[in-house]
């Protein structure tokens, strides 16, 4: 854009000869340019300072405001213009130099190459911010007569000129995510439950009586996770469970190992052994699990290792009435209450009910808090069960002047000479899962003390990786049982049930656990399979009552049910012997769900197969998710239409039966 208009200067002098005027104008122009340069050089330090300030202010300003200023304004007298600046412009306007001075300063910059054109006279005053260099204005648009530049002046901005702008947001420096060292450098646990076995006698810390019990249960060697965790846990109870070694608080343990790798015994054995030396029955170990069935399974394992000992195990899941459960926890005596359970296995909701409503139920002597399926339990933290437990553990009985008040448990604080001079029973948290989160933020909710991680998988780079599991994405983060083979079956929505029937009938699959994504899907598939006939099937979901679920699981375990159609209620932890195949009728949305579902087979070193039925639209995403998860190989298993053809007539008949059954159910439900 034009910087100045020589003709306007030429005006008064042009009365005589135009050429003379032209010459004078040029001379004047050169003089002005010289003066401008001189001033520029004099002002350089101040300008640089101001430019820095302006740049900083520019960065703070929001973009639309900047744009407004550029457009409107800066015009002299603009209400947006700072007062000082306006005054300066006014001074210049009245200073007599008029356009000449304006030109001197007019060699100032425009806000940017894309700023809208403005009248020359305003251009001079609108960009009056100190430190702006007019030289750039020349650079911003060609001068009307480039030949009139002073010799040596380049057409581009001079080297020391300051450009307005630089408002572009500077990118914040990238922060490298990092994991706390306990997460980044776990104690590695062997993966193979067939090769990395440790004979029972190689861990002498386990009491001979306990070893005998293990052998009686058919266990001659420890699985890798047990060989790592049992000694670590026993070490923290080496002086009895009341005081940790040296009076120091023991570290909390986190264990991440594949499904079916024996995590349950990894805590049952040391906890039982530690409590065997207790004198008075108190709740010393609390195991919290997400589902009733799982709690029942774990309490069964505790029972099998505590029978013929004075230790008592109570199960509180809501399967029995509150009163019945209360009777298994406490007994009213003449002088108060007597505790009846050393180990309590509970679901979180029912546990809180007992903390609130069971008189005499105390957790003040709790030594071990086991959180099984820990990642799932962290998800249920909104129920606030953990703060309630911790509060109950450190509940004070009042009476500070009581002689035993000194020995009363207090919330742990920093370890100091004073704090260890009066040792108290520690509370140790033990976390177990096949898909333990590595997200430090999530783990922080558990208030772990110097946690120690045992893991079969490689350390992760950063918490970002750890976060991804919730999005269903990961990078080789979970270990799968070695004996598990993964398959997928491409099919359409219509042929999905047929594919299941084909796998069971034609391939002679027995003891199959089939997962759907909702209880409605489970129910309908069950009705359809029943209507089709030839398969002993059952359903397992929240549609069934607890007792019905218990019966179904038992029958499935006994081999009386060929196909168990279930929601994710059985996806975690359930240990049913002899499950040879898992079918994902509905593809799981998240990797964690996949890991747990397929982990119901190929347990304890056995082999198993997992089939996932995939619609065309699901194929790419699902296969990518598993590839990134480190699934060794995903075999494609095509079922050609010709194979399904013979099943079709029976299938069509079953479909119409299903339709009638669904209608009938709706009719019955209708008010
Ligand atoms: N040392 C061992 N030798 C032989 N069998 C074992 C051993 N330890 C555990 N098992 C058996 O392995 C099976 C799986 O164990 P467990 O249920 O503890 O696995 P898990 O790691 O907790 O699996 P999930 O993550 O699915 O809950 C059980 O049937 C158990 O009896």
TrEMBL record:
Basic residues composition bias: residue spans: 59-69
Residue runs in coiled coils: none
Biased composition (Low complexity): 7-18, 42-56, 121-142
Domain Helicase C-terminal: 497-655
Pfam families: DEAD, Helicase_C
Molecular function GO labels: ATP binding; hydrolase activity; RNA binding; RNA helicase activity
Keyword Cell membrane: no
Span of the signal peptide: none
Catalytic activity: ATP + H2O = ADP + phosphate + H(+)
Residue ranges of domain Helicase ATP-binding in the record: 244-454
SUPFAM superfamilies documented for this protein: P-loop containing nucleoside triphosphate hydrolases
InterPro entries: DEAD/DEAH_box_helicase_dom, Helicase_ATP-bd, Helicase_C-like, P-loop_NTPase, RNA-helicase_DEAD-box_CS
Span list, region Disordered: 1-20, 35-165
Keywords carried by this UniProt record: ATP-binding, Helicase, Hydrolase, Nucleotide-binding, RNA-binding
Enzyme class (EC, first level): hydrolase
Entry note about domains: The Q motif is unique to and characteristic of the DEAD box family of RNA helicases and controls ATP binding and hydrolysis.
Similarity comment: Belongs to the DEAD box helicase family. DDX51/DBP6 subfamily.
Stated role: RNA helicase.
Name of the protein in its database record: ATP-dependent RNA helicase
Protein's gene: DDX51
């Amino acid at each position: 854009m034009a910087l100045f208009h020589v003709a306007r200067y030429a005006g008064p002098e042009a009365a005589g000869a135009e050429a003379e005027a032209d010459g004078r104008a040029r001379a004047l122009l050169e003089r002005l340019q010289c003066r401008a340069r001189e001033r520029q050089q004099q002002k350089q330090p101040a300008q640089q300072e101001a430019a820095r300030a302006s740049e900083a202010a520019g960065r703070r300003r929001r973009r639309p405001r900047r744009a407004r200023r550029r457009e409107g304004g800066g015009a002299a007298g603009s209400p947006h213009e700072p007062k000082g600046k306006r005054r300066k412009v006014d001074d210049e306007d009245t200073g007599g130099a008029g356009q000449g001075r304006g030109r001197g300063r007019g060699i100032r910059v425009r806000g940017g190459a894309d700023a809208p054109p403005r009248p020359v006279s305003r251009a001079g005053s609108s960009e009056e911010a100190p430190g702006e260099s007019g030289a750039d204005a020349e650079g911003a648009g060609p001068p009307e007569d480039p030949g009139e530049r002073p010799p040596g002046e380049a057409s581009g901005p001079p080297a020391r000129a300051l450009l307005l702008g630089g408002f572009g947001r500077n990118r914040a420096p990238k922060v490298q995510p990092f994991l706390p060292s306990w997460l980044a450098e776990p104690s590695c646990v062997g993966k193979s439950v067939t090769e990395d076995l440790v004979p029972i006698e190689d861990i002498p810390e386990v009491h001979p009586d306990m070893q005998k019990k293990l052998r009686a249960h058919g266990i001659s060697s420890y699985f890798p996770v047990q060989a790592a965790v049992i000694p670590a846990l026993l070490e923290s109870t080496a002086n009895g469970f009341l005081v940790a070694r040296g009076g120091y608080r023991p570290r909390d343990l986190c264990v991440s190992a594949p499904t079916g790798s024996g995590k349950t015994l990894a805590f049952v054995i040391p906890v039982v052994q530690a409590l065997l030396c207790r004198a008075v029955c108190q709740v010393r170990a609390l195991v919290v699990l997400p589902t009733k069935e799982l709690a029942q399974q774990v309490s069964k394992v505790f029972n099998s290792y505590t029978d013929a000992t004075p230790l008592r195990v109570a199960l509180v899941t809501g399967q029995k009435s509150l009163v019945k459960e209360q009777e298994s926890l406490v007994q009213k005596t003449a002088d108060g209450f007597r505790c009846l359970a050393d180990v309590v296995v509970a679901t979180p909701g029912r546990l809180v009910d007992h903390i609130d409503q069971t008189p005499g139920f105390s957790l003040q002597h709790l030594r071990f808090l086991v959180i099984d399926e820990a990642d799932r339990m962290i998800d249920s933290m909104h129920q606030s069960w953990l703060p309630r437990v911790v509060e109950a553990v450190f509940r004070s009985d009042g009476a500070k002047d009581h002689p035993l008040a000194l020995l009363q448990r207090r919330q742990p604080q920093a370890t100091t000479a004073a704090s260890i001079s009066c040792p108290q029973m520690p509370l140790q948290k033990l976390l177990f899962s096949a898909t333990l989160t590595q997200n430090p933020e999530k783990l922080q909710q558990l208030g772990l003390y110097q946690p120690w991680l045992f893991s079969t998988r490689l350390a992760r780079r950063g918490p970002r990786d750890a976060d991804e599991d919730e999005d269903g994405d990961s990078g080789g983060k979970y270990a799968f049982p070695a004996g598990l083979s993964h398959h997928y079956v491409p099919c359409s929505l219509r042929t999905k049930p047929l594919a299941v029937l084909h796998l069971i009938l034609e391939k002679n699959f027995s003891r199959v656990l089939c997962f759907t994504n909702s209880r409605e899907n489970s129910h309908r598939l069950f009705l359809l399979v029943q209507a089709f006939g030839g398969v002993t099937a059952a359903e397992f979901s929240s549609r069934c009552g607890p007792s019905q679920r218990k019966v179904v699981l038992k029958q499935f375990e006994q081999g009386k049910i060929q196909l168990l159609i279930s929601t994710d209620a059985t996806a975690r932890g359930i240990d049913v012997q002899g499950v040879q195949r898992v079918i994902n009728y509905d593809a799981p949305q998240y990797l964690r769900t996949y890991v747990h579902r397929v982990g119901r087979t190929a347990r304890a070193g056995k082999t198993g197969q997992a089939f996932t039925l995939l619609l065309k639209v699901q194929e790419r995403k699902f296969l990518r998710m598993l590839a990134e998860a480190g699934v060794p190989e995903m075999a494609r298993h095509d079922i050609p239409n010709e194979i399904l053809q013979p099943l079709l007539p029976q299938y069509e008949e079953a479909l119409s039966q299903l339709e009638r059954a669904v209608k009938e159910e709706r009719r019955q439900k209708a008010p």
